[in-house]
Amino acid sequence: MITRYAKQGQDISSSIELDSDILNPEYALRMEFRRGDFSPTSTLLLKIYTLERTSQELVVIGYSALAVFLDKATGVQPTTDNNNFSGELVLNAGAHQLRLYRHGPDTIKPLSAGRLEEGDFVRTVPFSLRKPWSA
Predict the structure, then answer these.
(1) Strands 58-67 and 69-71
(2) Averages of pLDDT over each 10 residues, the chain, 135 residues
(3) Domain ranges of the chain
């Protein structure tokens, strides 16, 4: 697994659509990554912010992570960039409900979707990544 934390693209910032359902929030954001050389261990690291109610200060409420690719045979994220998996990767597509963690990952260790589980668990929050358009 690669131990460097390489950022792909610019920071992403999105606000919720105010008229969306509170139990199914929608965001006015769509972003595509078209490079062909992504690592099999690619992980989407999310840093979630909110505005503190009284001071209106921007604060971090937690972190979450999602494996971008899965080994087709096992359904788990590859652990290295070598071919130590079945050789066929699939995109980790679909709706996902992710846990929110108090602390970010240890940057000394390789990043993976499970790395945050070593920290303090905050709570599970509804967060979905879905394809809103028809294929």
Answers:
(1) unpaired
(2) 60 80 80 78 86 86 88 86 73 85 80 75 49 43
(3) 1-33+41-68+94-135
